[in-house]
Amino acid sequence: MKVGFVGLGTMGSGMALNTLKGGFELVVHDINRDAAAPHLEAGATWAESPRAVMEASDVVLTSLPGPPEVEAVALGESGLLAGIRPGKVYFDLSTNSPTLIRRIHDQFAKAGAHVLDAPVSGGPHGARSGRLAIWVGGDKAVYEQNKHVLDAIGDKPYYVGPIGAGAIAKLVHNCTGYILQTALAETFTMGIKAGVDPLVLWQAVRHGALGRRQTFDGVTQHFLPAHFDPPDFALRLARKDVSLAVEVGREFDVPMRLANMTLAEMTEAMNRGWGGRDSRVAMLLQEERSGVQVQVPQEQIQAVLDNDRNA
Q1: What is the pLDDT of residues 25-55, one digit of tens each?
Q2: Same domain for 174 and 151
Q3: 245 and 251 Cβ atoms separated by less than 8 Å
Q4: How many CA atoms lie within 13 A of 308 on its CB side?
Q5: Do 83 and 207 fall within a single domain?
Q6: Pick from 140, 161, 182: which residue ends a domain?
Q7: DSSP 47
Q8: In this structure, what CATH number is given to the domain that contains residue 35?
Q9: Of 14, 66, 214, 275, which has the fewest beta carbons less than 10 angstroms from its beta carbon?
C-alpha cells in the first residue's frame, strides 16, 4: 500500500517516518522541501504538490497548522481533490474545524472518495515515539479497513463517531487543558499571595482528590519553573485550538464563559509578542496581575517527584 503524507513539520515529520517504519511505501510533500530530507533518505518519494501525492497514493495523511492550510491543501488548485479517484482515503491529522472537515468530506464524497478527521495528541515526542492518541471521525468501516495505517503512527487510535467527531474530541481535550491552566494560574497565585510558599502549596494540593489524579503535575514543566522557551507547543497554535472550540460552542449555542476568558488571556499574551513561546506563557499574565512571581528551581521540583516515586 502507498501512503501519502503532506506536512512534515514538528508533528508530521515523526509521524511520516513512523509510517515508513510500518512498512508502507511513502510519498511526501511539504512547502519546504528541505523538511523532507530525512524521509527521502529513508526511502520516501517526493511529490511536487498535494495533488501529486493523492495521485500516487492509496491513503493520504495531512498534518498541518490549522484550517486555512487544510483547506488549501485539500481543496486548492493543486490540492488533494484535484488528484482524487474513487476509493481513495484521506485522513486529516491536524487540529481542524469540524465544520471545515465536513465540507471537505462532502466534496470528496461526490468523487467517490473518503475523508476522515483523525487529530492526534501526544506532542512532538509522541509523534516521534509513536505514543499518540488518534481520535477518528468518519465512516467506521473505512476506519477499520485502514486502521493499520494509523497503527503505524500511534498506539491509541480510537473511533469517536461520524465525520467531525474526531475534531470535536480534540478540541474538547485541548480547550479543557487550556481552561484548566487558566484556573490553575488564578488559584495558585491566590494561595501564594495569601501566604503559602509555591512549592509547599503545590506539594499540598497534589495530595488532594484532584492531585491524586495527577492534575497538578502539569504545572511542573512550565509554570512552576517558569520555563517557556523553547516551546513544547507554541502559544499561537494553542490559541487557534481554543478559538476553534469557541466557534463550535457558538455554532451550537453553547455558552463557553471560561473558554472565552481563556481565549482573551491567550490573545493578550499574543499581543505581548509571545506567540512563538510555549502556550503556558499566558499564565504569566495572572502572575503580573496578582503581584507575585511563581518560580521554583527545577531541581527542587524534581526532588519532590523523585521522593514520591521512591516512597
Answers
A1: 999 999 999 999 999 999 999 999 999 999 9
A2: no
A3: no
A4: 13
A5: no
A6: 161
A7: -
A8: 3.40.50.720
A9: 214
197 and 93 co-located in one domain? no
Backbone angles phi, psi at 33, to 5 degrees: -60, -30
Given 161, 188, 223, the domain boundary residue is 161
Mean pLDDT of 187-201: 92
Mean model confidence pLDDT for the chain: 94
Name the H helices within the chain: 12-21, 37-41, 50-56, 67-75, 98-110, 123-129, 140-151, 165-193, 198-205, 209-212, 235-251, 257-271, 284-290, 298-310
Strongest mean pLDDT among 114-118, 231-235, 240-244, 258-262: 114-118
Question: What percentage of the chain carries pLDDT values higher than 90?
Answer: 81
Residue 250's contacts (CB-CB under 8 Å, 6 or more residues apart) are 256
| Confidence band, pLDDT 50/70/90 cuts, at residue 218 | confident
- What is the pLDDT, as a whole number, of residue 207? 87
Q: Which residues are catalytic?
A: 170
Amino acid at 37: A
Q: What would the DSSP string read from start to end of 241-296?
A: HHHHHHHHHHHTT---HHHHHHHHHHHHHHHTT-TTSBGGGGGHHHHHHHT-----
**309 or 2, greater pLDDT:** 2
In this prediction the pTM is 0.84
In the chain, how many domains are there?
A: 2
Residues 6 and 155 both lie in one domain: yes
Domain hosting residue 297, numbered range: 168-310
pLDDT tens-place string over residues 1-18: 999 999 999 999 999 999
* Mean predicted confidence (pLDDT) in 113-137: 96
Burial of residue 196 (number of CB atoms within 10 Å: 0-12, 13-18, 19+): middle
b/e 228-242 (16+ beta carbons within 10 angstroms → b): beebebbbbbbbbbb
Looking at the fold, whether 229 and 119 belong to one and the same domain comes out as no
**Is 69 in the same domain as 137?**
yes
Same domain, 17 and 155: yes
